[in-house]
Design a protein that fits this description.
single chain; mainly alpha; 2 domains; globular; transmembrane helix; transmembrane; cell membrane; transport; DctQ
């Protein structure tokens, strides 16, 4: 052992402990956000009164939730990276690239921390207070807000030290001309940072900081801090961590197994039998989890084993799970729809309602393919038949899920609650279901809160980069320039949508779905709006394109989830998922031909 390690070990352990402490503080903020919202709902329903602080402090709590877990999320490898280039390099180059990416990320995070701390100090000097009746001193919240990036900076420093001393994880296998040059420069810089393995959120922030520093004469750090403070202290964002918490609580119950037992008697008479349980199970579970990966993993963990034991076609089982798992993006409460709604300034409630019909149509299309593909196949359906009494019992098994979906979606549809309030109702319902399943212990609740904070912080860093990059695009006039370039091609609206679909399919081969949205939305949205498409319609189109990316090799995330569940080669899983990929692509053109499938909510 070298003499450096005993000296550095306390420092590294201290940074790790600080990151964990900050994440726990974020988990506490999430619990307070839930209790604050629940108290507001109860007071308004019982005596028609309001706490008077919910809207203001929900915004503050959301900002803290989205950033405080960043350091712990880095340590636990929860932040998203583009690994396509990195993983195909020699081991020696991967080590160098990891160190370079960590150094760049450290610099970006340090600049972000400095900008936010300076912003808080200036706010204190000017005694800035909120416009709400509480007149809250903003510098206190702003200083707490800056702690998340500061802890992330220290976590990156710890990562750099570990890489140097060998304790980090081992690597795995004219005006128009000027504008074109600017777009190419910014895009190239972003691709360079992503290709180097930089975390997506930091790559977006770094691209914005460097581009503004080079091409605009302004105080970049002040602009950055002010923009992030205004963007992330939005009470509308409260739905994001709360729906994540709802899903994390339910993931720790026996809900998926209960779903399978409840669905089995109703699926067996259909051609394809219990293969439909993958699709219907994913559809129902998506309505209470909001996550594609969680839906695929949780439902697949139960169904794949049962289907294999009963002799069903393994390829069709894998393909149906890959395809149906993507419905977590479309069926409300979808996390991706929330993010799109915030970035595009579209009503999250309308997006949720607009996603229901296309999601159900996709599920029916998947079931139709399973039925068609099962014709002539010899199954070995062990214990697949169920008497009438068994079906009645199955309804009771499905009752908790149906009630929770009814509470969340019904409260939204009837206008009784907004997305954040519906999320609070969902968390309360998830807690009741967990208690019913005897899965509501303090340890499991703490585990769910911590997992929610890590996921929220991962999304928060990406959102911060997306907000900043969107402002940069507007400042440079990039949407206008892109629209002019597309106009010069004289594309019809259908031609534009076809081109965008092809673009997103290709992009889905190298990027995850969330990164696709936040990186392309500032340019793509003005184009489609200019072509006459509604932003609400484009949101559903974009989410379906992201669904396709989830089952597109080489980095389709659902393919990896199913591979982890089955141990099958990636090529075989991708081939099994291909019919569902084609059906999802067909859904895009159905939406083009029948836009009222989405626009009925307007």
């Amino acid at each position: 052992m070298t003499p450096r390690r005993p000296i550095l070990t306390p420092l590294l352990q201290g940074i790790d402990a600080l990151g964990l402490l900050a994440a726990r503080a974020g988990a506490l903020c999430l619990a307070v956000l839930f209790l604050l919202g629940l108290a507001e709902i109860i007071l308004r329903a019982s005596i028609g009164q309001s706490l008077g602080i919910t809207l203001e402090y929900s915004g503050y709590l959301v900002a803290l939730i989205l950033f405080l877990g960043s350091g712990e999320a880095l340590r636990r490898h929860r932040h998203i990276r583009v690994m396509l280039v990195r993983d195909h390099l020699p081991a020696c180059l991967i080590s160098v690239l990891d160190l370079a990416a960590s150094l760049i990320a450290f610099l970006i995070s340090a600049l972000l921390s400095y900008a936010l701390i300076r912003y808080a100090i200036e706010s204190a000097q000017w005694d800035m207070r909120s416009f709400f009746p509480t007149r809250t001193p903003l510098w206190i919240i702003q200083f707490l807000f800056s702690l998340g990036p500061l802890v992330l900076t220290l976590a990156l420093l710890a990562r750099i030290i570990r890489l140097i001393i060998g304790e980090a994880e081992r690597p795995s296998t004219a005006q128009d001309q000027l504008m074109s040059a600017l777009i190419i420069s910014i895009t190239s810089l972003l691709i360079l940072l992503l290709g180097a393995g930089l975390w997506v959120g930091l790559a977006l922030l770094g691209t914005g900081i460097i581009s503004l520093s080079l091409f605009r004469d302004l105080d970049v750090l002040a602009f950055l801090a002010g923009d992030l403070w205004r963007s992330l202290t939005s009470a509308e964002l409260a739905a994001l961590p709360l729906f994540i918490l709802m899903g994390e609580i339910l993931n720790r119950t026996r809900l998926a197994a209960q779903l399978f037992r409840g669905l089995s008697p109703f699926m067996t008479p259909l051609p394809g039998g219990l293969l439909h349980s993958n699709i219907v199970g994913c559809t129902l579970f998506a309505a209470v989890s909001g996550s594609s990966a969680a839906t695929t993993a949780t439902v697949g963990r139960i169904t794949m084993r049962e289907l294999e034991q009963r002799g069903y076609d393994r390829s069709l089982a894998m393909g149906s799970l890959c395809g149906a798992g993507t419905l977590g993006f479309l069926i409300p409460p979808s996390l991706v729809l929330i993010i799109y709604g915030v970035l595009a300034e579209v009503s999250i409630l309308k997006l949720f309602l607009a996603g229901i019909l296309p999601g159900l149509l996709l599920a029916l299309g998947y079931m139709a393919w399973v039925a068609l593909a099962s014709v002539g196949k010899k199954q070995r359906p062990l214990k697949d038949s169920a008497p009438a009494m068994g079906r009645i019992k199955a309804l009771f098994a499905l009752l908790p899920v149906i009630l929770l979906i009814g509470l969340v979606i019904g409260s939204l549809y009837l206008g009784l609650a907004g997305p954040s309030e519906a999320a609070i109702i969902g968390v309360a319902g998830a807690l009741i279901i967990a208690a019913f399943h005897k899965a509501l212990s303090f340890a499991r609740l703490t585990e769910a809160l911590m997992a929610s904070i890590e996921t929220s912080s991962m999304l928060g860093l990406i959102l911060a980069g997306a907000f900043f990059l969107s402002k940069l695009a507007a400042l440079f006039g990039l949407p206008t320039a892109a629209a002019a370039a597309v106009d010069a091609l004289h594309l019809s609206p259908l031609g534009l949508i076809s081109l965008l679909l092809l673009f997103y399919i290709l992009l889905g081969m190298v990027l995850d779905g969330l990164s696709m949205i936040v990186m392309t939305l500032p340019l793509a949205l003005p184009l489609v709006v200019g072509a006459g498409y509604d932003p609400l319609w484009f949101g559903i189109f974009l989410v379906i394109a992201v669904e396709m990316a989830q089952i597109t090799p080489p980095i389709g995330f659902n393919l990896f989830v199913v591979q982890d569940l089955t141990g099958e080669p990636m090529g075989r899983i991708a081939a099994a998922a291909f019919p569902f990929f084609l059906m999802t692509a067909a859904m895009v053109f159905i939406l083009v031909l029948f836009p009222d499938l989405v626009l009925w909510v307007l």
